[in-house]
């Protein structure tokens, strides 16, 4: 585990969508790799009881400290950090997150536990990226409360778009009660097939939805590419696995957009 930190200022970004299977985990994993390749120091946090992000790097059963311990105030964030590469650290998840509502009950301050824990470590990173579960609960609320921005991964299909309505309600509630400065930085099209009529029609519809969210569609869309899944099976990222695949090139372009947005602030 890593217990030292540099003197930096970080941006905390959540990948969120209340529809499962839209690629949130891949976005966090590969965006982290893309930003790290540009010299940035990254912390990624797995808040999903399925532990998918954690599994991209190692067996979740092998960890002794996780985001679950942070939410229970059993351990500090600095005690739950594992090194996965030279510039990427990970706070893994635990399947015990499935019981977090029961374990915490209605205790005051439940929604801000992650935000408080990250205060001790956030200056050690340029970016902190958080993967969230699709279901709304204390794990998700803690992630949104700790975050500066939300990136919304969305596939070009009806069910993903339906998930946006639920997410909008969640973000509105979080801004009202927990984190008034939270903003949506943009909607990211993932697993996108430019050659289909449906894909192009959904993209046009999403532009209208983005306006209602007072945000944008990122210029980059992430292409459907089997190399992303192949990389995860091999416990690596697509940037390292197949750097010239369409998805790898798309994610590199997306990282450039994220960094460009930072320069505009």
Please describe what this structure looks like.
42% of the residues lie in helices and 14% in strands. With 265 residues, the protein is an alpha/beta fold. α1 (24-37) packs across α11. The longest helix is centred in the middle third of the chain and has 20 residues, at 158-177.
Number of strands: 7
Main sheet record: 7 strands, mixed
Percent in helix: 40-55%
Distinct helical segment count:
11
Instruction: Give me the strand/helix succession.
Output: EHEHHEEHHEHEHEHHHH
- The overall pLDDT, averaged over residues, is 87
Distance between the termini: 33 Å
Question: What is the gyration radius calculated from CA atoms?
Answer: 17 Å
* pLDDT < 50 runs, ≥5 residues: 1-8
User: Which sequence of strands runs across the widest sheet?
Assistant: 3-4-2-5-1-6-7
Shape: globular
β-strand amount: 5-15%
Query: Which class of secondary structure composition applies to the elements?
Result: alpha/beta
In summary, what is this structure?
The chain has 265 residues and is α/β, with parallel strands linked by helices. It is built from 11 helices and 7 strands. Helix 1 crosses helix 11.
Keywords summarizing the entry:
single chain, 265 residues, seven-stranded mixed sheet, disordered N terminus, globular
């Amino acid at each position: 585990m890593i217990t030292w930190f540099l003197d930096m200022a970080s941006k905390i970004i959540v990948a969120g969508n209340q529809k499962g299977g839209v690629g949130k985990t891949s976005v966090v994993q590969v965006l982290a790799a893309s930003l790290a390749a540009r010299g940035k120091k990254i912390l990624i946090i797995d808040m999903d009881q399925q532990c998918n992000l954690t599994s991209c790097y190692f067996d979740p059963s092998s960890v002794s400290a996780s985001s679950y311990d942070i939410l229970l105030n059993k351990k500090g964030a600095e005690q739950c950090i594992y090194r996965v590469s030279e510039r990427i650290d990970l706070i893994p998840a635990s399947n015990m997150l499935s019981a977090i509502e029961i374990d915490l009950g209605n205790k005051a301050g439940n929604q801000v536990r992650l935000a408080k824990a990250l205060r001790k470590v956030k200056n050690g990173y340029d970016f902190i990226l958080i993967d969230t579960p699709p279901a709304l609960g204390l794990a998700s609320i803690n992630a949104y409360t700790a975050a500066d921005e939300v990136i919304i991964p969305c596939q070009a299909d009806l069910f993903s778009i339906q998930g946006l309505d639920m997410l909008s309600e969640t973000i509105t509630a979080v801004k009202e009660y927990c984190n008034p400065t939270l903003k949506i930085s943009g909607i990211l099209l993932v697993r996108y097939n430019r050659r289909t009529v449906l894909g192009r029609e959904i993209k046009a519809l999403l532009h209208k939805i983005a306006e209602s969210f007072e945000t944008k569609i990122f210029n980059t869309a992430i292409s459907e590419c089997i190399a992303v899944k192949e990389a995860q099976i091999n416990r690596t990222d697509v940037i390292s696995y197949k750097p010239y695949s369409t998805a790898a090139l798309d994610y590199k372009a997306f990282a450039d957009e994220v960094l460009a947005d930072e320069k505009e602030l």
